[in-house]
Design brief:
By secondary structure, the chain is α/β, with parallel strands linked by helices. The chain has one domain: Ribokinase (UDP-N-acetylmuramoyl-L-alanine:D-glutamate ligase). It has eleven helices and 13 strands. It has a nine-stranded mixed sheet, sandwiched between helices. It has a four-stranded mixed sheet with strand order 3-2-6-7. Helix 5 links the parallel strand 9 and strand 10. The protein is globular and about 55 Å long. It binds adenosine-5'-diphosphate and sodium ion (NA). Adenosine-5'-diphosphate (ADP) binds next to helix 9 and helix 10.
Length: 333
């Protein structure tokens, strides 16, 4: 029997240093947080890898950590979730990536010190091993917490090997239309979608007016998100998912039948008690990817991802709060 193809996640690993605060301090101010510091394994890449493994995916993570205790803890966290870590290299010079997370009521503010993540792709031998694994993968999943040049390089390599690319374009960054055209599945939150669309401008063969894709205040969230997704679609991305926080998520795919327009699906989020929204987006990325790769319909996969990430926000921590497949199935039932 052929071995199951693995999903390759290439991205960041960060130790999250989390503190609860009543509000953000202003420049020059010292603020007392509530309770003590919590250390939780995180980083968009690692979170997405763990989300997928918990949800039943066979996952390999490629990344870089420092030669320090955080690096070891980040590796152990991945392994405990069943993620293969042989492509996580240990950098002798840079510190492990660190995220300073401030929880303010139902939201968060984050500062990332990239450390070793910022060197991913500079070591040619490591990059070659990643490319070899990529060629054998069922899909490659990327985010933007590693150097953009590395992301671009790997998207080209995936394209050459006919391996589908999932890109979570977060944190928001300017991406070329050329790059976007090579992405099978683009996943963004509403802010990232808006930033991308604004930067990309109107595609030459657009059937939409500019106003339709740039009217943040006037329209409701869903209409606005749909316009943004359609615009990204016009820029050549096959499938676009836009997450809308407590409002759920939208999935716009190319129509199956020739001559039909794109298919737009919306799934509202179930109402939940919010504990920590950190990694909600990562959980969504992991869940949607796993569900689509295992052959669920776009509508089923979207529902699976929305329910998985709603469960995530009820729990504390990035990786520590990610749900198992059994928990999501029970929640969906
Ligand atoms: P990001 O974390 O990248 O900003 P979102 O905030 O859009 O992404 O959250 C991702 C997904 O997590 C949403 O599409 C939704 O399914 C789920 N989610 C986020 N916040 C909530 C919430 N308050 N209640 C229920 N589900 C939520
Ligand atoms: Na959000």
């Amino acid at each position: 029997m052929e071995e199951q193809k693995r999903i390759l996640v290439v991205g960041s690993l960060n130790m999250d240093q989390v503190v609860q605060v009543p509000r953000l301090p202003v420049l020059g101010e010292t603020l007392l947080g509530a309770g003590s510091l919590k250390l939780v394994p995180g980083g968009k890449g690692a979170n997405q890898a763990v989300a997928m493994a918990r949800l039943g995916g066979a996952v390999t993570m490629a990344g870089r950590v420092g030669h320090d205790p955080f690096g070891q803890q980040l590796l152990v966290a991945l392994q405990a979730a069943g993620v293969s870590t042989e492509l996580v290299a240990i950098d002798e010079e840079e510190a492990s990536g660190t995220a300073f997370i401030f929880l303010v009521e139902q939201d968060n503010a984050i500062i990332v010190a990239a450390g070793a993540n910022g060197c991913l792709g500079r070591d040619a031998e490591h990059l070659t091993r990643i490319e070899e694994a990529l060629a054998q993968a069922s899909a490659v999943v990327l985010q933007l917490e590693i150097p953009l040049a590395t992301v671009e390089h790997l998207i080209k390599a995936a394209r050459a090997a006919a391996v589908p690319v999932v890109l979570n374009a977060a944190p928001a960054q300017l991406l070329s239309p050329d790059l976007l055209r090579q992405v099978e599945l683009l996943i963004v939150n509403e802010h990232e979608a808006q930033a991308l669309v604004t930067a990309l401008g109107t595609p030459p063969d657009s059937t939409m007016t500019s106003a339709e894709s740039r009217e943040p205040a006037a329209k409701d969230v869903l209409t606005q998100a749909r316009a943004l997704a359609l615009r990204l679609h016009e820029h050549g991305v096959a499938t676009v998912a836009v997450t809308l926080g407590a409002a759920g998520a939208l999935l716009v795919t190319r129509g199956d039948q020739p001559g039909t327009g794109p298919l737009s699906l919306y799934e509202p989020a179930p109402r939940v008690q919010v504990t920590d929204t950190t990694a909600a987006g990562d959980c969504f990325v992991g869940a949607l990817t796993v569900a689509l790769l295992e052959g669920q319909s776009p509508a089923q996969a979207l529902r699976f991802a929305v329910y998985a990430s709603a469960l995530k926000v009820t729990r504390f921590g990035a990786q520590s709060g990610l749900p198992s497949r059994a928990e999501v199935m029970a929640f969906l039932a």
